[in-house]
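As a warm-up, study this chain.
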Amino acid sequence: MERVHGKEKSIKEVLQARKYGLDYYQREFNWATKQVEELITDLSARFRDSYDPDKGRGAVEQYGHYFLGSIILSSKNGGEVIVDGQQRLTTLTLLLIFLNNLQKEQGHPDPVPLDNFIFSVQFGNRSFNINVRERSSVMDKLYTGQSPNSEELPQALANIVARYDDIAALFPDDFKDEALPYFIDWLIECVDVVQITAYSDDDAYTIFETMNDRGLPLSPTDMLKGYLLSNISSDEAKTTATQQWRAITMPMREVDKSDEPDFFKAWLRSQYATKIRERKRNAKPEDWDRIGTEFHRWVRDKDESIGLTSDAAFTDFIGKDMSFYAGHYRRLLAASKTLTEGLEYFYYLSELGFTWQNTVALAPLAVGDDLPTALAKMNAVGAFLDALLVRRIWNFRSIAYSNLEYAVFRHIEAIRRKPLSELVEVLTERLVAEEDEFVDNRFYVHQQNNRLIRYMLARMTDHVERRSGITPRFVEYMTSRGVHYYEVEHIWADKFERHHDEFSHPADFAEYRNRIGDLLLLPKQFNASFGADTYHKKVKKYYGQNILAQSLNEEAYSNSPGFLAYVRDSELPFEPYSDFNKEQVDKRQELYRLLASEVWSPAVIVVAALPRQQEAG
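Now compare it with the structure written out below.
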């Protein structure tokens, strides 16, 4: 093996005007929302430590650095090939594309030039710096501000689009204005990697295997286990605790290795975090933050304050507390993947793209709660979070991770180990106090909220189906792949000339056309066949679709007794339309607003909290 060179480099040095290939086994980009969330959170926290607008952008050079890890490169055919690190470098490229687009959208007067970090141009053609031919079309669309249709892409490329959307959702709002150029300067100049370069494939792969297979460091869960067991003096009790630990953690490891550390973070935060770091320069990490990054050290430092004061306490911490919360955490994980009666809101929240629900749901649980009570508590929390988030969406407020972290912490404090009846009361009060009802009657679809609109239409359609005695199809409506997947579709075709009598300018027409009152959830094949038709032709076909689409057609009011009973009981202003002009969009907009108020009413918390006598999941 030749000498290996390792050198610390900034993102600027790694990506600017550089070109990297990938070997065949490295071509899949498989980071999930969780990894992007952690990266954005870490970068944001580190930048916030140093950010000081009073000192100007020149002071960014003195900001604290952030170490992103190592990358391994191999020299091959006169170029450089990434052996390890493409997940991070690809995500950084997506982040730079997002920041570049954000600068354009915000119209910053002095934007940071980023093109050279993203691509190079030769003979008029873009070639991205992470040079994978099959990605080029998707990356080009993202760079030019377009929204690739994920349903029509292979899974690997759809994943790239999804992670770009994650970045857009997770990037902190308070960095988007004055702080934006400071953040970009810091990202490219002060975020570092160690670049390890080998000069043959064999050497590069040997380095990769050595770093990943030999001398593996203990994980935080391993170190927590060691600390807890070392404080149990009886060999017999220690053996029992070891067996309990294995029985608790193995099911999580077998499904997803990240589930195990995520459980400890969720459990410890939900039950013990009493402080959170303030959002200001040089604020120190508190319980909430430390549990997120070093929960094993936090337990050791806080052992007395969390009750670990005796041999028996350490034994019970594993055998009773950890076992109790891990069992319910596994139920929540299962419910997030399969729609489960009694924990249905956790499937809804996973489709909504929320990630805090498990932590909040564990908060009201108390060791000793029987199963029906624990399920009722968790589902009540799920209903609260679902209603809170949808209200924020309707009122054009962010549901990004960074914007809700502090609120999530406060909600957890308010409901920790509360009895069921008191929990319902607290959640209902907080929903009413935290977020206005569906007050904006102009709610519309735009590039960033299409997925969220789809969720809302799916839930509202599912709700009307249930109340009408029709088999609900929420899972079907949200399925993203296959022949029969659904899309958000406009009732009005994109034909301004058909509406010039009501709108003097195409932009006014487009604004009205994008309001939720003009939207339905329909199979993609329907829009392909009828999307450009007039309303008079479409409305005849709507009767064969879901109940919200059918409700535009007069036949729904004579041939659907269950739906008629629901309309009568709910007193919602459903009505058929022979024409569908501006006035009808306004009426439909009001119908959807009132329907949303019913679906996400504070009363759903009470219903969700009705104890189930049978186990869910």
